[in-house]
Automatic annotation (TrEMBL):
GO MF terms, alphabetically ordered: alpha-L-fucosidase activity; lipase activity
Gene name as annotated: GLIP5
Name under which the protein is recorded: GDSL esterase/lipase 5
Enzyme Commission numbers on file: 3.2.1.51
Keyword annotations from UniProtKB, A to Z: Glycosidase, Hydrolase, Signal
InterPro entries: GDSL (IPR001087), GLIP1-5/GLL25 (IPR044552), SGNH_hydro_sf (IPR036514), SGNH_plant_lipase-like (IPR035669)
Native organism: Apostasia shenzhenica
Length: 397
């Protein structure tokens, strides 16, 4: 891994109203201590195309929100395209593998079982219901689907076993890019109504509510992949008005502001919600900057161009030939590319990222890495032990 990170671009700092953090003491202290040291045996996934395993194959949407045709999925991981926005596996596939859990199935597939978790991710989805409305399964709807899964698990396992499964499970929420790219930057009305900081505050406010709701339903262990420098996506590099081949920094700054605001929320949740444990990839943004600018350090040849697409940097989103622009080419060696299509990484990128998330150092993923989150559930942090021994109530705002 790169040891030095380049200075991040100028950021905008959202001012957040933290009053949505209020929660009553009785709820906050009702959490149960994990009963054993067993590995988390279930993995629940929420989010967008970064995690969609094929849910959008089942909904009414536009071709750009689906990845169900070749060359998607050509790496040989499955017999053909699965709906994953990649040439093969995505980050959560590798994470499940490291956690020794079967591949987490799409919720929308009626034959999916829930014992080891299920994946609600939907390509193009946002935190806000307005983002790509009507063409995606938004985060709020994904949460409703989770309720159905909980009911079904209670019937299958009994209430007590289901509760244990829910509280030992790991929850990944990977979402936000579409709120900025489609919901904000492609919407003159939204930009008219809200300044960038205000918009980031709204996204983070809604995301915080979702995290709290999951916590109240019994979830304890969370993974939050931070947003990458969005302006370095081939699609955004291609439309940078500077037209000098650089990343579109104004777009990246929204991602950076989002990450900072989310980090602040997570730190406060850590104080407020007893037993709340999380992995946040705080160093991911800078690391990704390094990856696209110095790909050879990481074993890649190309950090700029999409393997599959057309136009400058492969930035015209045409991979597969079923979208507005039909022309596209596919590179011969996707494993040498960071980017698979105009918006999404290759299987090789997913593997590199997931490995680092799995057992990376605290500069990269903190306060827990994924291995600790999945396998060291019995290990309490010092603050938690102090809480237990002194009977001190967790902080309330
Ligand atoms: C959630 O988003 C809506 C817009 O969809 C916004 O009106 C509301 O203020 C947001 N909630 C929070 C807590 O930020």
């Amino acid at each position: 891994m790169a040891s030095r990170f380049p200075a991040p671009p100028t950021a905008i700092f959202p001012i957040l109203a933290l009053n949505f953090l209020i929660i009553s003491n009785s709820i906050a202290s009702s959490s149960e201590k994990p009963t054993d040291d067993a590995a988390a045996a279930a993995f629940f996934i929420f989010g967008d195309s970064t995690v969609d395993p094929g849910n959008n194959n089942y909904i009414d949407t536009v071709p750009g929100n689906r990845a169900d045709i070749p060359p998607y999925g050509q790496s040989g991981f499955a017999s053909g395209p699965t709906g994953r926005f990649s040439n093969g596996r995505i980050i959560v596939d590798f994470v499940a593998m490291y956690a020794k859990i079967p591949v987490v199935p799409p919720f929308m597939n009626p034959s999916s079982r829930y014992r080891h978790g299920v994946n609600f991710g939907s390509g193009a989805a946002g935190v806000l219901p307005e983002t790509n409305q009507g063409k995606v399964i938004d985060l709020r709807t994904q949460l409703k689907q989770f309720d159905k899964v909980v009911s079904s698990l209670s019937v299958e396992l009994g209430d007590k076993e289901a509760r244990i499964l829910i509280s030992n499970a790991v929850y990944c929420i990977s979402i936000g890019s579409n709120d900025y790219l489609s919901g904000y930057l492609s919407s003159p009305e939204m930009q008219e109504r809200f300044g960038p900081e205000e918009f980031v505050g709204m996204v983070i406010g809604n995301l915080s509510e979702t995290i709290q709701e999951l916590y109240l339903k019994g979830a304890r262990k969370f993974i939050f992949p931070s947003l990458c420098p969005l302006g370095c996506l081939p699609a955004l590099r291609a439309v940078n008005p500077k037209a000098d081949g650089s990343c579109f920094e104004e777009v990246s700054s929204l991602a950076l502001a989002h990450n900072k605001a989310l980090s602040a929320v997570l730190i406060s949740f850590n104080h407020i919600f007893k037993g709340f444990k999380y992995a946040f990839t705080s160093g991911f943004y800078s690391w990704f900057h390094e990856l696209v600018h110095n790909p050879s350090q990481f074993g890649f040849k190309d950090g700029i161009n999409a393997c599959c697409g057309t136009g400058p940097y492969g930035g015209v989103y045409s991979c597969g030939g079923d979208k507005e622009v039909k022309d596209y080419t596919v590179c011969e060696k996707p494993e040498e590319f960071v980017w698979w299509d105009s918006f999404h990484g290759t299987e090789m990128s997913a593997q590199l990222i997931s490995k680092t998330m799995w057992d990376g150092p605290p500069e990269w993923v903190a306060p827990y890495n994924l291995r600790q989150l999945f396998f060291e559930t019995g290990k309490e942090r010092i603050e938690d032990l102090v809480d237990e021994e002194d009977g001190v109530e967790p902080l309330a705002v």
